[in-house]
Design brief:
Length: 211
């Protein structure tokens, strides 16, 4: 068996220069996201979401970004799930994108808020029918006896709503409003490039961090 401690990689694909990077973090993020999509890497829209419970125990899971603009980063989920319960008690979270093939990481921190019902309704209506039924069928994060429960629930709600399931009241969108961004570009000899953007009095301060 190979020793995982001996697994190493030299990062040499690109560089991140503070003088050539965007002045606004959202612009830098948009550029990198577009490059990740153009590179056709697997699921460039996947991001890790970290939340902290009332007992200060952190947890992470992978969710999909569904929108972004000057207001923040948006994803959708079950409000009654573990992440929803933790955000209800502590509305601060962190997101991380890891685009392995490009040797890049983006970290985002900030306060989380629910988006409007109108926004959640519009997105829910755009989802495939099976996904809309699934939002009703799955009591996310709760213990269930078997997969049979999910299948039975899906059949139940499919028969009840047919082709027009409404958005469940326990399902909708969240928006993380960033106050800090970090862009990480792998470099040779572990001398990686790290640029942090911090919100200070309404202005973004851009700083280089040691790797």
């Amino acid at each position: 068996m190979n020793d995982i401690a001996d697994l190493r990689k030299s990062y040499e694909r690109a560089e991140l220069n503070e003088h050539a990077s965007a002045e606004q973090p959202l612009q830098q993020f948009e550029q990198w996201l577009k490059e990740a999509i153009q590179a056709e890497i697997p699921e460039p829209n996947a991001m890790t979401l970290a939340t902290v419970a009332s007992n200060l125990r952190p947890s992470t899971r992978v969710v999909l970004i569904k929108g972004y603009d000057a207001r923040g980063i948006v994803w959708y989920t079950n409000y009654d799930s573990r992440k929803g319960q933790e955000l209800a008690g502590n509305p601060f979270a962190a997101l991380q994108f890891h685009w392995v093939e490009l040797e890049r990481v983006v970290r985002i921190e900030g306060r989380v808020e629910k988006i409007s019902d109108a926004e959640s309704d519009a997105y829910f209506a755009s989802r495939p029918l099976d996904s809309r039924i699934g939002a009703w069928a799955s009591p996310q994060s709760q213990v269930i006896e078997s997969r049979t429960i999910l299948v039975a629930n899906a059949a139940k709600y499919g028969a009840q709503f047919l082709l027009q399931p409404p958005r469940p009241p326990h399902w909708g969108g969240y928006r993380l409003v960033p106050d800090q961004w970090e862009f990480w570009q792998g470099r040779k000899s572990r001398l990686h490039d790290r640029l942090r953007y911090s919100l200070n009095a309404g202005q973004w301060l851009r700083e280089r961090l040691a790797p």
